Amino acid sequence: MLKVWGRANSANVQKVMWAIAELGLPHERIDAGGAFGKTDTPEYTAMNPNKLVPVLDDNGFVLWESNAIVRYLCNAYGQNTLGSNDKQAFARADQWMEWNATAIQPEIIATLFWGLIRTPAADRNVAGIEASAKRAGERFGLLDAHLKDRAYVGGERLTMADIPLGAMMFRYFTLPFSRPSLPNVEAWYGRLTERAPYREHVMVDYASLKVPGA
Ligand SMILES: N[C@@H](CCC(=O)N[C@@H](CS)C(=O)NCC(=O)O)C(=O)O
């Protein structure tokens, strides 16, 4: 059985849990990180010396880095579902994962989520937050054009390409900042929110992560 260490309200844990649920894999999630601690223990640092969540244990094969875990799960258990035997189709999905990692997630998590939820209002870099929201909106314009003639990022069904990007969208659409009109991205997000695994693992309330004064 797969074991995942990580708190349910972590966006990086959510990618992994959403993928596992879409793949229908038996699993156990163990709360760790944030208020749950555990990541400083010798047992945990032996698994992940970064002391971060998530960590996957697949029958003794231990892996950290959420995107690497998602790729592994799709390759090992989802070749004809989230993953693909076709190397070019897999590379195309990987392209969107990398784009998320470098162009999207730093804006949504490192600047917007941290600025608005993990920083007291008095200490907030308002100009930095506005600039980041603008950049994210502009970059999503590119995704909006891509989604014009497809239901999901990789085509007509959900694939690995949707997972890390999709995991960002709940925060993007629920944090308080201004967004441009993105009809195709909004329609895609709407499709994600109709999926039970997405609702269960990604649409997780993050109010408890708010610091006092945020
Ligand atoms: N690049 C890593 C980043 C992992 C990461 O930053 N995890 C955060 C949660 S999203 C964490 O462990 N924070 C400390 C904690 O929760 O105790 C990944 O994608 O797995």
Tell me the name of the CATH class of the largest domain.
Mainly Alpha
End-to-end C-alpha gap: 39 Å
Bound molecules: glutathione
**Structural class designation:** alpha+beta
The low-confidence parts are: none
- Rg over CA atoms: 17 Å
Q: How many distinct beta strands?
A: 4
Question: Which percent range describes the beta-strand content?
Answer: 5-15%
How do the strands line up in the largest sheet?
2-1-3-4
Q: What is CATH's topology name of the largest domain?
A: Glutathione S-transferase Yfyf (Class Pi), Chain A, domain 2
Order of helices and strands: EHEHEEHHHHHH
**What general form does the structure show?**
globular
Task: Give an account of the 3D structure.
It is built from eight helices and four strands; from the N terminus they run βαβαββαααααα. With 214 residues, the protein is an alpha+beta fold. It has two domains: 2-77, Glutaredoxin, CATH 3.40.30.10; 87-195, Glutathione S-transferase Yfyf (Class Pi), Chain A, domain 2, CATH 1.20.1050. The protein has a four-stranded mixed sheet, covered by helices on one side. α1 (11-23) runs parallel beside α3 (66-77), α1 (11-23) crosses α6 and α4 packs parallel to α6 (163-174). The longest helix has 31 residues, at 87-117. The radius of gyration is 17 Å and the shape is globular. The model has no long low-confidence stretch (mean pLDDT 98). The structure holds glutathione (GSH). Glutathione binds at residues 10-12, 33-34, 39, 52-54, 65-67.
